[in-house]
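Troubleshooting log. The previous structure file for this entry was overwritten by mistake, so regenerating from the original sequence record. Sequence copied from the archived sheet and checked twice against the printout by T.R.
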Amino acid sequence: MAGKIFAGERVRRLRQQRGMALSALARASHLSMSYLSQIENNQRPLSIAALGAISAVFGVEPRHFADDRDLRLGSELREVLGDPLFADDGSGLSAISDAVRAAPGIASQFIKLYRAYQHLMEEGARHRLDQDFEAAGAEAGGTAPFPYDDVRDFVQSKRNHFAALDVAAETLFENQGFASTRLLEDLIDYLRDQHAVTCAVSAALGNEGVLWRYDPGSRQLHLAESAPRESRIFFLAQQIGRMQFAPLIEEEVRKAPLGSPEARALAYTGLANYFAGALILPYGRFLTQARLVRHDIERLQHHFGTSFEQVCHRLSTMQRPGNAGIPFYFLKVDRAGNIFKRSSATRFQFARFGGACPLWNVHEAFAQPGRILVQVARTPDGITYLCIARTVTMTGGGHLSRPREAALGLGCEISHAADLVYSAGLDLQNQETAVPIGSSCKVCDRDDCRHRAFPSIGRGLAIAGHERHVVPFSMTPAGVK
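Regenerated output below.
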């Protein structure tokens, strides 16, 4: 928790969730009402004493009030230190928090160094495997994973909101008089009239495994016949972003702390995609409708003629200053637990180096394809979330294409749950019904989880031969080896 901690909104939400008046909090914490009022209005930072007192009253860890970036950095550092390479280090939670608080820059660089180490180990294993199969003469291809990590970190630092692109897309939609009901035709006409680009549907692209292809020579945009209408709209919108708003996108990329040409190229593509999402779901119209239908994803999908995934992703980007929507996390995961899309405007922690928690409903979604699952879940830092999950299937257009199935996860802190249709019928005040989840076993401190696959980092094993608990790993108390 580096620097001053301004956590007024979090203090107020906790107080209101517990049905506690400011005067009651003052009595319980032995702090003055005027001081608490200043804290809640972000006029005063939390002192160490106030942090301890308020945390004790609400029964949460002090890190609940930490800066989002420090929470993510601390979580990632704990995952890194779970590698057997650091088995004798014994760094507990307090030591990791101290390191992040004292030198966040060094902690971040240490994580990057570990990524480099991981990549070298993977490359070495790949080369050894090649030699085993007498293929040592073939160079191991592929791109280092750093570009993806760098771009994800950059997007996360912006809370997945890029104001300049959002405003540009919304202005274009309104000025041109586009309509969601005929947006495909509107964008085809716009590309033809404004950029002399014609669009054609191609059956051959699907056979090549290509969704869209732009030919600069003929100024023709080819769209795969197998792509559904909402995908074609997205491809057209992205092409407009690349052609007309390239300077805006390039400026965002130029300002980003990206360390390689590959990362900058990935960021450019990601921001072109962001522009496309902002054009087909313009900020003001989308936020108004989302609030009207209490963020019912299927109703938003039908209203705007988009896909379920497009709505979920757009909901995670609505953080315009002065008119922000609900802060959501969003992710896309495959059956093996690989997270290949993720963004968050919340404090939700995604596992970077290890598997995700099996109790999280995003994994259960595969057992009930196409059905929306709702879960109230609480993370180890005491934060409770309303979590939504559903599978989506991406077909290849033919029987032998082996459709790709993925699960989408969307969630927000429980203080926003009343604004979501998915909270209907749930007992949001009963904390005992919340499912205890974590980002991964190695960074989760829960002692009573029978689903644990690994012991927690910084905790010793309490091995006893005279009994067997339902929890597979009995751990020593925090700080005891």
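Residues 104-132 form the longest helix (29 residues). Archived copy saved in two places this time.
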